[in-house]
Amino acid sequence: QLQLVESGGGLVQPGGSLNLSCAVSGGRGMNYVAVGWFRQAPGKEREGVSCISSSGNTRHYAESVKGRFTISRDNAKKMIYLQMKNLRPEDQAVYYCGGREGPFYSDYVSLRRNEYTTWGQGTQVIISL
Q1: Which residues of the chain have pLDDT under 50?
Q2: Distance in angstroms (rounded) separating the CA atoms of residues 110 and 65
Q3: Which of 89, 121, 65 is nearest to 12 (CA)?
Q4: CA dist., res. 96 & res. 116, Å (int)
Q5: CB of 122 within 8 A of CB of 6?
Q6: Which 3 state secondary structure label does DSSP give 91?
Q7: Residue 89 has what pLDDT?
Q8: Cα(64)–Cα(58) distance, rounded to whole angstroms?
Q9: Hey, what long-range contacts does 38-45 have (CB within 8 A, 24 or more apart)?
């Protein structure tokens, strides 16, 4: 079965940067997995941050992170990355990696959380001086 494990969270100052990783295992392989990064703050719903199609050719970002976050994937390493720059206090949350398995009939990928069936355990990002 498909499994995802996040890592890289920690404490960072406002304006700082942090890189998150999501290791993918199981399933039918990276070419069959679309991935989204989501985050959830206390008392709030899990919201989409960024997502990337199985091919890597289609990417989406929430408006709140455009220009600051970059999603990428390395299928050979079975890894998904989220590079976060210019972090703001509002970015503080537990970040989750979500997976959706194909087959895919297009390069479609979505930030709708219900599109994803498999989740990692989450990694906490704290923004503080």
Answers
A1: none
A2: 16
A3: 89
A4: 11
A5: yes
A6: helix
A7: 97
A8: 19
A9: 38/95, 38/96, 38/97, 38/98, 38/113, 38/116, 39/91, 39/93, 39/94, 39/95, 39/96, 39/125, 40/93, 40/94, 40/96, 40/122, 41/92, 41/93, 41/94, 44/93
DSSP state of 56: S
How far apart (Å, rounded) are the C-alpha atoms in residues 30 and 4? 11
For β-strands 18-25 and 79-84, DSSP reports them as: antiparallel
Residue 104 near residue 54 (C-beta atoms within 8 A): yes
In the three-class reduction of DSSP (H, G, I as helix; E, B as strand; rest coil), residue 114 is classed as helix
> What would the two tokens of residue 23 be?
């290791």
At 94, list the tokens. 């537990």
Considering only CA atoms, give the Rg of the chain: 14
What is the spatial distance between Cα 94 and Cα 75, in angstroms, rounded to a whole number? 24
How does pLDDT run across 58-84, given as a tens digit for each residue?
999 999 999 999 999 999 999 999 999
Please, which residues have CB within 8 angstroms of residue 45's CB and are 6 or more apart in sequence? none
